[in-house]
Amino acid sequence: MLDQTEGYITEDGRKIGGVVMEMKNITLRFGGVVAIKDISFDIREGEIRAIIGPNGAGKSSMLNVISGFYVPQEGEVWFRGAPRPQMKPYQVAQQGIARTFQNIALFEGMSVLDNVMTGRLTQMDASLWKQALWKWGGAEKEEVANREIAEKIIDFLEIQNIRKTPVARLPYGLKKRVELARALAAEPKLLLLDEPMAGMNVEEKEDMSRFILDVNDEFGTTIALIEHDMGVVMDLSDRVVVMDYGKKIGDGTPDEVRSNQDVIDAYLGVSHD
Amino acid sequence: MPDQLLFAMEVTLNGLMAGVLYALVALGFVLIFKASGIFNYAQGVMALFAAMTLVGIMKGQVPFSHLINAIFGTDIHYFGWHVPSLIAILLTCVVMVGLAWCVQYFIMRHLVNQEPIILFMATIGLAYFLEGFSDLMWGSEIKKLDVGLPQGINETIDRVTFDWFGYGFFIDNLDIVATVIAALLVVALVVFSQYTREGRAMRAVADDHQAALSVGVSLNFIWVMVWSVAGFVALVAGIMWGTKSGVQFSLSLIALKALPVLMLGGFTSIPGAIVGGLIIGVGEKLFEFALGPALGGATENWFAYVLALVFLVFRPQGLFGEKIIERV
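Output (structure tokens, whole complex):
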């Protein structure tokens, strides 16, 4: 079913394109601890790709490698058909990879709208001189256009009623949604979600799942997400990478992964000897 | 109107003007503290360095002339030209941006994520280094700074108030200019931080480093920018204070005057720096006027600190600072 060059058609009939990002033999060590051991996988255009595994499996480390927060000792990261040189996180963001964090990293002092607008920073390029001239330098036009996109995303994620509220005052579930909005505002070529459902109640989880599916559907955004709640992931994702103790133990469609003996062992807890 | 009241009014006006000058210094502190959590002890020395550089460029002084002469046995001191003040100010701005870059790349870049006290110590080191460096570069003698700002009593105010009250107010022209410039500076800073892309990025960095990185903001770039803006504010303060009382070492001590202003206004608020400066300026002048003779004078030396102390006890975050809430 999986065609390496041309992509594939999902069960629900969506067309998945070529490889956007490829991790080649990534190894990441912290001192003597090996967090990721020789892992390779790819992410294809338009798909929802999940990385799952028990606590401490190295999922978050992998996401941090993709977003440039960690630099692997070995292996290569290929993005859009070319090997990526070593980059700072902000350079990775400028390349079109947006992310959210497991422990929410929002600008607490700013309003929801301002937070979402920071997501547009990479898309705005009027120089300071042009901005000083405001209307006559074309900066007003740029600001208005970017504001429109931000508002569209705010509408899409149904947070219009809290647009002007300072983020610090919002409950946890809404903060997660604002963080997603900020990442989406960058119109990313690849969206990384670090445990988008962590700490949520059932209702919030359902909402978030729906938003993730809608984002993928509406904007065609390629999404890679980390989650340890297996039930949620299996419903959401097109393909799944399973990690355990820093190693890849499974990779394939949810059904393939579910029937993989190593995966079952890892989740049910078989002693390692 | 009774004489006492008229005196008090004149004192208040003069206090407001002095307060603007305090606020100018405090503003530089707030900018850096907000964006990077660094209390920049060197802000006062930066004002001194800026003023010395400005004078040096205007007079066509050869930088490091003492050093050059000592090494090569030459005797050069001046290029022999004079630079117009406006061009000299622009050149000094370039020097301050260079200084900001050096501070970021040689010091602060290596201290990211360190404790605030370590960053503070680094700025103390920077202050003393910069003090010696400016002496080495431009010589340590007292210099006169005149960029063409009007000085002396404002005749119009004197005449108008004399016509109205029968008593002419003494207001220095320089203070009026300082007030106008400070007002423009604050408006420019607010517009910059609220409405420009760089300003938004600056606020983002001030709020959360990790999140700022994830939306594509380079921390180094923002910090160089913030130190540059603080350098520019230092230059403005240096010009005002330097014109008033000459460019000399004591200029760097105005930083100490900014401390109570910051405690009053809050370390993170630009409007706070302004209002704090005004309150201290008016407060110390009026206090000296009302109780100075009874207390033996020279109350201006300590009044600001006592006021700040009272504020620390009752409102530790200052008038406009972000509220300090610890969750237990």
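Residues 3-36 of chain B form the longest helix (34 residues).
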